[in-house]
Amino acid sequence: METKNSAIEVLEKSGIKPTIQRVIILEQLMNSRMHPTVESIYSEIRSKFPTLSLATVYNTLEILEKHKLIRSIKVESEHTRYDYAYDDHIHLFIKETNEIIDFYDEEIVSLIKKKLTEHNYSNYQIENINVELNQVN
Which among 85, 100, 87, 106 is positioned nearest to 133, based on CA atoms? Predict the structure, then answer.
């Protein structure tokens, strides 16, 4: 798991002033694999920092995403969820449970990048790979 110091280092390296709010929000995402919503980030952090506002969470997430430190994940009618952008991976969305799972397969990511290049999309960068799964009975 990441620590406060590494959250500060990540923010500074990205040219973002490491305010306490930014540090705790980024740290929350660095230590979570649950792909939380804005509301769940807010409620989790607010128990420790009661002066934190929901607007601050929204604004911080916007800054972190703009600097490509986090990714927003939008699936179907779900609320937007967030993920720390530490490496390339695929998000599997299980519709029955509303669960998002990190799926690591370098071969699939490489194949997608190769296919994009073959189809003249080499000047684009992959931001998210989301796959929605329905259980087959």
Answer: 100
